[in-house]
Every structure is written in C-alpha cells, then in structure tokens.
Specification:
Layout (H helix, E strand, L loop, with lengths): L2 E12 L2 E12 L3 E5 L6 H9 L5 E6 L2 E2 L5 H6 L2 E4 L11 H7 L6 H14 L1 H5 L10 H13 L5 E5 L7 H16 L3 E6 L2 H7 L2 E6 L2 E7 H5 L2 H8 L1 H6 L1
Parallel strand pairs: 3-8, 3-9, 6-7, 7-8
Antiparallel strand pairs: 1-2, 1-4, 4-5, 9-10
C-alpha cells in the first residue's frame, strides 16, 4: 500500500506551551489508523494542525505533496477532510442543507451521487432530511457530521472522537461505518478515547501521552501491550479476552 498521509517531526504550540512535540505518523491507502490517549494528550490539536487550523512546524504531505502552502479549503479539495470533535453542524439548517454544504466544490452530478451514498450509509438521515440539525439526537448528529464530510468524496477522513457522548449501541454502528469506509477505499485517521473500540477497528495505532507518541504498531499488538492494558483498557478486560 502506498502512503497517503505522512506527518514528519510535527510540533504545535499554543503561545509558549508546546502541545505536540516531535510527532511523526503515516496513513496508507485503504488503512485505518487510530491515535489513542487520555484527554489533553494533544490528539485533537494534532488533527487540527494537519487540517491547517493551527500552524504546524514540521512537514505534512498528502499524496506526496507538501500541504504547507494550502489553506483548509484547498486541503479539502485535495481529498483530506476532518470531522471535528464537536461536529460543528449548522443547527438552524436542516439535514439536507448541512449535507449540501459538504459538496460546495462538487458538481451537481457529484453532489447527487454524494446524497445517494450518504443516505445508503445512514438511512436515518434520509428519514430526517428535512429536520433541523439542532433537533437530532447525538448519534444522528454524528452521522450528519460524517455524512457532510463524505459529500466531498474524500480520499481520507480524519475523525475526532466520533463516539463522544454516544450510547454503546450507537458507537458500535458508527465504527461499523468506519470499517465500511475502508472497504470503499477511504482511509481513516481516528482519534478516540474509547481505546477498545478504536483498536478493534484499526489496522495500526499510535499511543499519545503529553503531546508525544510513546508507542505505535499493529492495533492488535497495541491492544495486548501491558502498558495500554493498564492505562486504557483495564487489566480485567485483557485477562478476559
């Protein structure tokens, strides 16, 4: 598999505080990579910097091209898209209009195919297409945030805490969609505090602590590492598996 995203020696700071230090990672085509870690570890900051929200020292390349000179909308046009932690939907607009915004650079024909794809993945959104986004349940809002990103036909989707605040049965459905996206050729970089769910779906994993990667490897190996078991899974879960 060829490399889709490559981050090399990334540093991200808030004023004098360095939130991300010397971080390097790769995501290949048709791959799910997860970054797990405690709240405040720097995971969200890293995704935002890759997307261009925050300045980043180091190098970010996508499809072999350095992204430093590109604004956020240009990165989206090249096939890189972020679904943010708090979803950032337009609450006073209906589902269909929120989705339409995700296709702002697409032709009418591409947008039509995008709607068909999103409604196939998330049938509930089709049922709710005229409903205001602000009145949806938490799970439906997450579906809408993901659907809006998919309207732009991304090559890679970055998901920031997609399970946040959702019931376990909804979380399971979201992660089923993540796995299906890989089958469709969309690579995924997944930031997630629900380490067990993330490691179950991912091919590879990075463990982040205090702005640095302290461990990385195959997701199955990371899931059985004693350090991860103690900090993120709980000894009882590992012993029972």
């Amino acid at each position: 598999m060829s490399t889709l995203l490559e981050v090399t020696d990334a540093h991200v700071s808030y004023g004098k505080v360095e939130a991300v230090r010397s971080v390097s990672l790769t995501v290949a085509e048709n791959e799910i990579v997860t970054i797990i870690g405690a709240n405040g570890a720097g995971k969200t900051t890293l995704l935002s910097a890759i997307m261009g929200v925050f300045p980043l020292k180091g190098r970010v390349s996508f499809l072999g091209e350095d992204l430093a000179r590109y604004e956020i909308e240009d990165r989206v046009a090249r096939g890189l898209c972020l679904v943010p932690e708090h979803r950032e939907l337009f609450a006073s607009m209906n589902v269909e209009d929120n989705l339409q915004l995700g296709a702002f650079r697409m032709s009418k024909a591409h947008a039509t195919r995008g709607f068909e794809h999103v409604y196939t993945l998330f049938p509930k959104l089709k049922e709710r297409r005229k409903q205001l986004a602000g009145t949806l349940s938490g799970g439906e809002q997450q579906m809408l945030a993901m659907g809006r990103a998919l309207m732009g036909a991304p090559k890679m989707l970055m998901l920031d805490e997609p399970s946040l605040g959702l019931a376990p049965i909804i979380v399971a459905g979201i992660f089923e969609i993540v796995a299906k996206l890989r089958q469709e050729g969309v690579s995924v970089l997944l930031v997630e505090q629900n380490a067990k769910a993330a490691l179950n779906v991912a091919d590879r994993a990075y463990v982040m602590e205090l702005g640095e990667f302290v461990l990385n490897g195959k997701a199955a190996d990371i899931a059985t590492d004693p350090r991860v078991a103690a900090s993120y899974l709980g000894f009882a879960e590992v012993a029972a598996s």
